[in-house]
Amino acid sequence: MPANRSLDGRVPVCWRHEAQPALADELVQRPDVPGHWPDERFNLVWIVSREGPSWTFSQLPQLLLPGDRAQPVPRRVPARR
């Protein structure tokens, strides 16, 4: 995976929901990335963008069908010390 961090351009990734958080977390490496993708969510796009040497994470609800939710998937909550 480290070689992928240096690539330029846009790459859409369609993957099994349970694998998406690990992929996004590998790139972003911050608690912005949710730890899971709910099985019932099909109207959401996760966007991982490179900004200089670091990466950002955002979520875009598509809201195309009745019942689609505008709320993003909750991010991971860091463990309390």
List keywords for this structure.
single chain, 81 residues, alpha+beta, two-stranded antiparallel ribbon
Summarize the model shown.
It is built from 1 helix and 2 strands, in the order H-E-E. It has a two-stranded antiparallel ribbon with strand order 1-2.
Task: Provide structural commentary.
With 81 residues, this protein is of the alpha+beta class. It is 11% helix and 20% strand. Strands 1-2 form a two-stranded antiparallel sheet. The model has no long low-confidence stretch (mean pLDDT 82).
Fold topology:
Elements: H1 20-28, E1 44-51, E2 54-61
Antiparallel strand pairs: 1-2
- Intertermini distance: 30 Å
Q: Approximately what portion of the residues adopt beta-strand conformation?
A: 15-25%
Q: How does the helix and strand content classify structurally?
A: alpha+beta
Major sheet details: 2 strands, antiparallel
Strand tally, please?
2
Global morphology: globular
Number of helices: 1
